[in-house]
């Protein structure tokens, strides 16, 4: 049984993805917020537990996501207090829906930055989905026309493309999780936190340095780059102008193309693609799935969704960036 969060502990407060987080320990990847006024609400209490904290043993995992070799990467189960999210051999995350608390329980010898990465970039998007927000696998930047989002499966270059815009002076609003909401008549993107997760060659090519980086997690050579984001990260929600879907075309075509190719997606294809790229905590919750379907159906009728095929070369990123901006300009 997971213990309730101890209110008497000294806590650290942060903002990420539009959530106010109250944590029992520091998260170095986030900037601490000021002490709240009396009565200010916390959206999620995060408790950093010890590796020996007991966790339930579910009889069934309703969702398992596997790695390329077939081994499980993430498993989700319903438990009496809410949900249990397991990253085998890395960490458990126990989400108590009644107390709005999330216990983070690392396996032995798992470094803090790995636990923080799983929390920030894998688990919080699932919690947001439970709380009724729509979250897509993607990165997003602020342009003169509004937010431009790049969505796609892992490895399609979303973060690298966002970093290219950052290197040209555009603000990054999120990396790897695009959180959407409706404000008045606009669909807006909610800021995440200042960070880009990049390979060393992309950092060197775009920013001319491999400094100002920290490891993302112990199991990947990717680096968390923040040097160019301290003053460029956007802290307010910004209207969404367009979505570009990466990596959905013929892989052979992607390898052989020499210039960026942008084409519109019909609403049905756009809807099915975005549904496949959405973070989902409970795939058995029909009410929540219906909400998501309705939101995305509305989105594809209001926001242009385009397919982007680009050369697999860092040298062509300025041309790809120009093509996207020109396309956005025509749409707006």
Structural account:
The structure is a single chain. By secondary structure, this protein is α+β, with helices and mostly antiparallel strands. It folds into 2 domains: 119 residues, no CATH class; 198 residues, Phosphoenolpyruvate Carboxykinase, domain 3. It is 26% helix and 32% strand. The strands form 3 sheets. Strands 9, 10, 11, 12, 13, 14, 18, 19 and 20 form a 9-stranded mixed β-sheet that branches. An 8-stranded mixed β-sheet has the order 1-2-3-8-7-6-5-4, with helices on one face. A 3-stranded antiparallel β-sheet has the order 15-17-16. β5 and β6 form a beta hairpin. The radius of gyration is 20 Å and the shape is globular. About 3% of the residues have low confidence.
Number of helices: 7
Radius of gyration: 20 Å
> How would a textbook summarize the main sheet?
9 strands, mixed
Which CATH first-tier class of the largest domain would you pick?
Alpha Beta
Strand fraction equals 25-35%
- Classify the helix fraction into a percent range: 25-40%
CATH topology of the largest domain: Phosphoenolpyruvate Carboxykinase, domain 3
Q: Based on the structure, what is the oligomeric state of the protein chains? A: single chain
Total domain units: 2
Shape: globular
Poorly predicted parts? 4-8, 249-254
What is the average of the pLDDT values?
89
| First-last Cα distance | 53 Å
Structural class: alpha+beta
Order of helices and strands: EEEEEEEEHEEEHEEEEHEEEHEHHEH
| CATH architecture classification name of the largest domain | Alpha-Beta Complex
- Write down how many β-strands occur, each being a DSSP E stretch of 2 or more residues: 20
